[in-house]
Amino acid sequence: MDFAYAGGVLATGPAETTSDPAALEGGGWWAVAVTFEGKVTCVRFTDVRRAPHPEGPWSAPGAWTSSLDRAAYTAGVRRIRDEIADGVVYQANLCRVLSAPLPAGAGMAGLGSRLARGNPAPYAMTLSVPGLEIASASPELYLARDGDVVESRPIKGTARTAAGLLPKDRAENVMIVDLVRNDLGRTAATGSVTVPELCAVEEHPGLVHMVSTVRARLAPGTGWPELIAATFPPGSVTGTPKASALALLAELEPVPRGPYCGAIGWVDADARRGALAVGIRTFWAEDGMLRLGTGAGITWGSDPAGEWRETELKAARLLEVASGDGAGQGLDQR
Predict the structure, then answer these.
(1) Less Cβ crowding at N or C end of the chain, within 10 Å?
(2) Which residues are catalytic?
(3) Does residue 325 sit within a domain?
(4) What is the DSSP string of 128-151?
(5) Could you give the number of structural domains in the chain?
């Protein structure tokens, strides 16, 4: 079955697919996915209703491998710290992609329903259409829109408990909030950008996050195409300055991120509402493989071993849910 599921809403009956975000200013209910590299997919569905998450077959994937092993990842952290010392960047988000063979017959409906039960998330979404199979348990809001009001809730700072958050986490969060303010300001009415909440601590399954809220009112004549163009990729998964961080990450990360760290969500063009998550805590199927990204924000105060452990923490519970066998433990051996 081709479907999208988000926020208790099940959408079926795909009627139109486009790569043009201008369609989101027309009519209808759309599922939206944008890869980190900028490939846009918008799918309009005709049957949209409140329903439980669809069920489907699922079985544990094969052995996981990582695009960066521990040595390569910690070397990348040290390289970013060198670039910070040289004034090239202030912060950069270094990521790796985990891959495992996808069992025959396993589908995103089965994985998405497991995630909904085992790792509930405020911006979770499952999308299954030809050429695009995603099951996301994202806790992070990239862009929400209600009429002309837009909001972003960047996450920076992750630990097992609130007591484990460090001064480095707050400094990193404040830096990214400043970046998001500037990004939103490109499409906002003058003087409308505010920060209603700074560095709040939120509890999520297995960990806590430090989260801020940035809000603005759109300038006349702007909408989803302008918003995405001005703010993508999300600041929390790139770095600051954004252009310099992206150039550095292109050197350090050996494989594309794909849907991971992109945007995943829905737009109700008739109601002028929508919510796009940052594509973290996100599985996707590609070329017979199941993939999952994980990463950490690197600052001058980063410890390479500690940042590797943060990537482990973020991935562990998701791999356990997907495999049902404790696969999230001891990832450094994989």
Answers:
(1) N
(2) 140, 156
(3) no
(4) EETTEEEEE----EEEEEETTEEE
(5) 1
